[in-house]
Amino acid sequence: QVQLVESGGGLVQAGGSLRLSCAASGGTFSRVHMGWFRQSPGKERELVATIFSELRKIYADSVKGRFTISRDNSNNMAYLQMDTLKPDDTAVYYCDARIGSVWYRTSTDSWGQGTQVTVSS
After folding, report:
1. Listed residue (3, 2, 95, 113) closest to 49, CA to CA
2. What residues contact residue 95 under an 8 Å CB cut-off, 6+ apart?
3. Rounded CA separation 50/32 (Å)
4. Mean pLDDT of the chain
């Protein structure tokens, strides 16, 4: 059973930066792909960044050039560095683990609390 815990959210002014962390346990971390999702009120959950086990990265157009996803396999951690933040980035952010083609939390609908990011204008 995979366990994921996010941290690092907060309140920041537009143009500022935050770094989110995701602590993972319960699996062979280096073999899974990791992703960051976000959801704001009234909107569907959005996948914003993915880092594959081979370190290839994919970003949503809305965050490309501003967000950077990374991972530390030795400590079972994933990160999302968010720069040049905009009010539209305000959301609850979640990490998830992808095993093969299946996102774990998506398939089990077990999202937890995530970490709130609020960007003021």
Report:
1. 95
2. 4, 6, 20, 22, 24, 34, 35, 36, 37, 78, 80
3. 11
4. 95
Q: How confident is the model at residue 1 (pLDDT cuts 50, 70, 90)?
A: confident
Task: pLDDT band for 55, please (50, 70, 90 cuts).
Answer: very high
For the four alpha carbons of 13, 118, 50 and 30, in that order, the dihedral sign comes to positive
C-alpha to C-alpha distances, 98 to 1, 11, 37, 110, nearest whole angstrom: 13, 29, 12, 14
The token pair at 48 is: 């914003």
In b/e form, how buried is each residue of 84-116, taking b as 16+ CB within 10 angstroms?
ebeeebbbbbbbbbbeeeebbbbeeeebeebbe
